[in-house]
């Protein structure tokens, strides 16, 4: 079974630009979550999508948005990039159906650098 | 307000000894707890979990203990091996309200010396 695939692996953008990151979950997983990890910080929850609907949202500004497609693939978009947005963005998929908890399977992440 | 805290940023132990990683949480709604391990340049991988109805879960060299009254959990690795050197994240979730959302601690970097 293929794991969680994130593209691209590395990205360099300039301030003010926008960026779109992609995540393909494990086949059969309908829940996709996005996290931001900055140096020395834990994983900060961005949002979670389940069956094309945003089910949970973290405390990030509206510049951070996402969506999920019918095949469960998800994209995350950041507009008007700031230097502080430089981070490792991790996508996680799980079989979670909303009635219980399961572990999440993470992709390798997209390393975004804003210059 | 950080709801999941790992107060030790780093831990160094000798190969063969026990590694104990600690985690505290503040949200009493959390009822499911997980530990993840992360190597550099890789995403976190699931290690072990525990539901709030238990106080201990064991999987090979890894055991997680949960003390609900103290809102504290710990991960024991016995015996520690050099390959266990990684960053360990504690995570918590609330099944009824936020089943798809996990709150993570900042991580503890474990170094196991040969």
What does the model show?
The complex is a heterodimer of chains A (115) and B (114). With 115 residues, chain A is mostly beta strands. Chain A contains no helices and eleven strands. Chain A has strands at 5-7, 10-13, 19-24, 31-37, 43-50, 53-57, 64-68, 74-78, 87-94, 105-106, 110-114. The radius of gyration of chain A is 13 Å and the shape is globular. The mean pLDDT of chain A is 91. In chain B, strand 6 (56-59) and strand 7 (62-67) form a beta hairpin. In chain B, 38% of the residues are buried. The mean pLDDT of chain B is 93. Classes of the chains: A mainly beta (115), B mainly beta (114).
Largest beta sheet of chain A, briefly?
Answer: 7 strands, mixed
Number of strands of chain B: 11
Radius of gyration of chain A, rounded?
Answer: 13 Å
Could you tell me the number of beta strands of chain A?
Answer: 11
Break the fold down into its secondary structure elements and pairings.
The complex is a heterodimer of chains A (about 120) and B (about 110).
Chain A: E1 5-7, E2 10-13, E3 19-24, E4 31-37, E5 43-50, E6 53-57, E7 64-68, E8 74-78, E9 87-94, E10 105-106, E11 110-114
Parallel strand pairs in A: 2-11
Antiparallel strand pairs in A: 1-3, 3-8, 4-5, 4-9, 5-6, 7-8, 9-10, 9-11
Chain B: E1 4-5, E2 10-14, E3 19-25, E4 32-38, E5 45-51, E6 56-59, E7 62-67, E8 72-77, E9 86-93, H1 95-98, E10 103-104, E11 108-113
Parallel strand pairs in B: 2-11
Antiparallel strand pairs in B: 1-3, 3-8, 4-5, 4-9, 6-7, 7-8, 9-10, 9-11
């Amino acid at each position: 079974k293929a794991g969680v695939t994130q593209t691209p692996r590395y990205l360099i953008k300039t301030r003010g630009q926008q960026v779109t990151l992609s995540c393909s979950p494990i086949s059969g997983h309908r829940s996709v979550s996005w996290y931001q990890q900055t140096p020395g910080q834990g994983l900060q929850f961005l949002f979670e999508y389940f069956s094309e609907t945003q089910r949970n949202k973290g405390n990030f500004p509206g510049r951070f948005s996402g969506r999920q497609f019918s095949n469960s693939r998800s994209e995350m978009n950041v507009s008007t990039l700031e230097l502080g947005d430089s981070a490792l963005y991790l996508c996680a998929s799980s079989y979670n159906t909303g009635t219980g908890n399961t572990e999440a399977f993470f992709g390798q992440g997209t390393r975004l650098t804003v210059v | 307000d950080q709801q999941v805290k790992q107060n030790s940023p780093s831990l160094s132990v000798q190969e063969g000894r026990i590694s104990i990683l600690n985690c505290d949480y503040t949200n009493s709604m959390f009822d499911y707890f997980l530990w993840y391990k992360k190597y550099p340049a890789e995403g976190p991988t699931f290690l072990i979990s525990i539901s709030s109805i238990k106080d201990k879960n064991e999987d090979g060299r890894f055991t997680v203990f949960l003390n609900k009254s103290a809102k504290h959990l710990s991960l024991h690795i016995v015996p520690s091996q050099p390959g266990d050197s990684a960053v360990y994240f504690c995570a918590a979730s609330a099944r009824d309200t936020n089943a798809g959302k996990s709150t993570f601690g900042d991580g503890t970097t474990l170094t196991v010396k040969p």
